[in-house]
Input
Amino acid sequence: MHNRVLVTGGAGYIGSHTTVELINAGYEVIVVDNLSNSDRGALEGVRQITGVEPKFIEADCCDRDAMRRVFEEYEFDSVIHFAAYKAVGESVAEPAKYYRNNILSFVTILELMCEFGRKNILFSSSATVYGDADVLPVTELTPRKPATSPYGNTKQMAEDILRDMVAANEHLSGIALRYFNPIGAHPSALIGELPRGVPNNLVPYITQTAAGIRECLSIFGDDYDTPDGSCLRDYIDVVDLAKAHVVAIQRLVDGRNKHRYEIFNVGTGRPVSVFELVRGFEEANSLKLNYKVAPRRAGDVMAVWADTRLANEELGWRAERELYDTLRAAWEWEKHLRQ
Ligand code: NAD
Ligand code: UDP
Output
């Protein structure tokens, strides 16, 4: 079944947006999620946006028997593997939880793909694999730096596992997409990010501060060697990111991939500082944000942004959404959550 895709973690933030774009592009989607960091509301949102209810199986990707039943029951050529834990700080405190979930789930999926002769696998990697890069922007050939957290290490390990599995299994092709900083929400405000507890990431902290749930945003450091002293990142709209998955899957389905294992940066190619992002949010939404400058956060790199030429040229993909629109969508989603 060329047009059927198994999406693990499809009820999550990036998975739900990707499910929408896959359906819009004519794919049939089967979602597997254990709802450990999401809820069924996301799939209801997908249904409202697309008019199509994706098939949903509540299961843990580490559960080999449950996953085997999914492979037995459904024909599909392609898998997108989003399912993972993603909290960097928690991974430092509980590394085994991260190695177990992020690695075991991926190995289980890859083994079953080999056993059942399924062809195409797309993996969610991260710009975190570059660490504190010596040269910016980073290209896919920029050497990876040793991971600074167990979470980051799971992404490096999973990339290597994918490379090795593809090398050993002729019928398997894989793409790792290295996401930069995904932000925003679907313009319908029907799906978005669901941070649990106090957000670690900048944009959910901003929207919760604007909503009065957090008193004040701390800007972690204004004394970096950057134009305004705050860190630089490459913030990619989640809908643009979702569309990158559709073109990457299509490349595999059509057999247009040049190598059986490929890596692509998925970012805008544009560095944005924390101050710029805060100001952009205020301007886009005509509001004032309560913020203060705080000490640097341990583990933060000063700057990282993507060289996106490979994705532009090979995937025919580029980020399209304007940052203002993304920041408006983030705020609309926060308001939707509070209704
Ligand atoms: P998310 O937590 O919203 O989505 C992950 C989904 O996977 C959740 O719905 C969760 O319930 C599910 N899940 C987790 N473990 C599972 C398991 N064992 N079996 C079945 N389902 C499981 O996170 P997200 O932001 O959508 O991230 C998706 C992927 O992208 C992850 O692999 C993440 O590491 C990666 N990534 C995210 C970011 C980011 O900033 N959001 C950046 C780079 C890479
Ligand atoms: N940041 C901040 N205050 C916050 C959260 C984040 O100043 O409450 C900064 C952080 O130091 C980094 C940028 O925002 O420079 C993006 O951080 P995030 O955690 O969203 O993503 P990361 O790039 O660390 O994966």
In short: DSSP finds eleven helices and 13 strands in the chain. The chain has a mean pLDDT of 97. Residues 147 and 323 are 29 Å apart (CA to CA). Residues 181, 200-202, 205, 217-220, 231, 233, 274, 297, 300 surround uridine-5'-diphosphate (ligand 2) (CB under 6 Å).
